[in-house]
Design brief:
heterodimer, A: mainly beta, six-stranded mixed β-sheet, 11 strands, globular, B: mainly beta, four-stranded antiparallel β-sheet, 0% helix, 48% strand
Chain lengths: 110, 116
């Protein structure tokens, strides 16, 4: 069965500090991986996706197939980065369902 | 473009009643997905629909739950004879016509169902 694990329920850092939100997945195929973010009182929205290989709001994520990880990183956290972050996997089949992790609540202190 | 719309935003039902949740996808999107989020949990896939077709309902409970996406009008998630365990946030997402997989899904604000 497909599984997405986000080991940290809560993560706190100070402004300007590096931040890494961990995501591990279990799926033997070639999945597509995403990070979604939910800011306070806003709807869930896409932050970035592996296939795009882009940096959004200073965040990057590298797919490590050997470790089956897709950790989200930012070198210098900002207060506005405080939000709930969800890692998600698409199995890459003809079905578009996403499997989500439980989420990590990131708090960036001033 | 108002994005994905869901209504109602909050719904309170007593045990045994029916709950109807509505989702209007982004204009031009033909794929609709429903997810459920229980407290302290991530979003769990329920069903994937295209216009007038259920593509994947493997995440739907076998009884009491049904979904449709008619040719005209919003997608409806229907829960019959609700029980307290149905209390959750229900999210709808849509994506544009295409292969389905790998497409960005755009989420609605969710409907929070409370069963008394």
């Amino acid at each position: 069965a497909q599984r997405v694990t986000q080991p940290e329920k809560l993560l706190s850092v100070f402004k300007g500090a590096p931040v890494e939100l961990k995501c591990n997945y279990s799926y033997s195929g070639s999945p597509e991986l995403f990070w979604y973010v939910q800011y306070s009182r806003q709807r869930l929205q896409l932050l970035l996706r592996h296939i795009s290989r882009e940096s959004i709001k200073g965040f990057t994520a590298d797919l490590n197939k050997g470790e089956t990880s897709f950790h989200l990183k930012k070198p210098f956290a900002q207060e506005e980065d405080s939000a709930m972050y969800y890692c998600a996997i698409d199995r890459g089949s003809t079905l578009g369902r996403l499997y989500f992790g439980r989420g990590t609540q990131l708090t960036v202190w001033p | 473009n108002a994005g994905v719309m869901q209504n109602p935003r909050h719904l309170v039902r007593r045990r045994g009643q029916e709950a109807r949740l509505r989702c209007s996808p982004v204009k031009g999107h033909s794929h609709v997905y429903w997810y459920r989020q229980l407290p302290e949990e991530g979003l769990k896939f329920m069903v994937y629909l295209q216009k007038e077709n259920i593509i994947d309902e493997s995440g739907m409970p076998k009884e009491r739950f049904s979904a449709e996406f008619p040719k005209e009008g919003p997608s409806i998630l229907r829960i019959q004879q609700v029980v307290r365990g149905d209390s959750a946030a229900y999210f709808c997402a849509s994506s544009p016509p295409g292969q389905g997989y790998g497409d960005t899904q755009y989420f609605g604000p969710g409907t929070r169902l409370t069963v008394l």
